[in-house]
Every structure is written in structure tokens, then in C-alpha cells.
Design a protein that fits this description.
- This protein is an alpha/beta fold.
- It has one domain: YqgF/RNase H-like domain (Nucleotidyltransferase, domain 5).
- The chain is built from four helices and five strands; from the N terminus they run βββαβαβαα.
- The chain has a five-stranded mixed sheet, sandwiched between helices.
- The N and C termini lie close together (7 Å).
Length: 143
């Protein structure tokens, strides 16, 4: 599937959602923001505003899983959030494996000389960018 326009990536969490956005050619994603979760309706409203602001054509949510691919303890909640967003947004919402994204984000911060403590919001939005970049790369390979 080929995308013509920006995509938004969401690294779903219990307290925060990391957000990344792609460029207009859907070739590369960058960290954008972190959203505090204050209920599903509030999350959907904030994501909807970002979709409009950045002229997003699709949203990709992270699917949390264990190293072996089985569901994590957060998987059911993440699926409920994804389904709620599907019913709330005017653009398609895709789910994508987010294994290792937080670990990759933590390593990137560490390599940049930044301490991890106190930078959870940065880790979340970088993890969203890692996940969205992987999604874009895998779908670009299919075209």
C-alpha cells in the first residue's frame, strides 16, 4: 500500500502517547509530541486535531507484544484504544508491531549523551518515530 501524504504514528501507553509524523512523501518520520492520556475521548480529540493540523492521511498505532510475539499485559488496552480511534477519526487507522521501539529510543538518547531519567516523554515520541519509520519502510518495500 502506497501513501500519498503524511502519516501519524502513535506509541500508545497507559499514561502517555508518543506521537511522530512523517513527511509529505511518507518516506521518513520524526518525533512530534507526547500526549497525556486523560481518557479515550480526550485522546481522540487531541489526535484528531493533529490529523487536521498536519493534514494526515492515516494513523498508525503501535501494537505492544512480548519478544516472542505474544500479547503483552497492555495489548488488550492498546487494542481498545486503537478501535476507539478507528471509530473516532476520519482517516484510516493501522496497527503495527512496536517491539523494541522503546529500547531503541532509549539507546538513541543514551548515545546522544542524554540521561534517561526524566525523559520518558522524549522516549515515547522517539519510539513512535522508530515504529512509524519501520512501518513506512516495510510498506515502501511492497511497492
Amino acid at each position: 500500500m502506497k501513501f500519498a501524504g503524511r502519516l501519524l504514528g502513535l506509541d500508545l501507553g497507559r499514561k502517555r502517547v508518543g506521537v511522530a509524523v512523517s513527511d509529505e512523501t511518507a518516506a521518513i518520520a520524526s518525533p512530534l509530541a507526547t500526549i497525556a492520556i486523560r481518557g479515550r475521548a480526550d485522546l481522540a480529540a487531541q489526535v484528531s486535531a493533529l490529523v487536521r493540523e498536519h493534514r494526515v492521511v492515516a494513523v498508525v498505532t503501535g501494537h505492544p507484544s512480548k519478544l516472542d510475539g505474544s500479547d503483552s499485559s497492555f495489548t488488550p488496552e492498546a487494542r481498545r484504544l486503537t478501535e476507539f480511534l478507528r471509530g473516532s477519526l476520519e482517516v484510516p487507522v493501522y496497527e503495527y508491531d512496536e517491539r523494541f521501539t522503546s529500547a531503541i529510543a532509549q539507546r538513541a538518547l543514551h548515545a546522544a549523551g542524554r540521561k534517561l531519567k526524566g525523559h520518558r516523554a522524549d522516549i515515547d515520541k522517539i519510539a513512535a518515530a522508530v515504529m512509524l519509520n519501520d512501518f513506512l519502510t516495510r510498506h515502501a518495500d511492497r511497492n
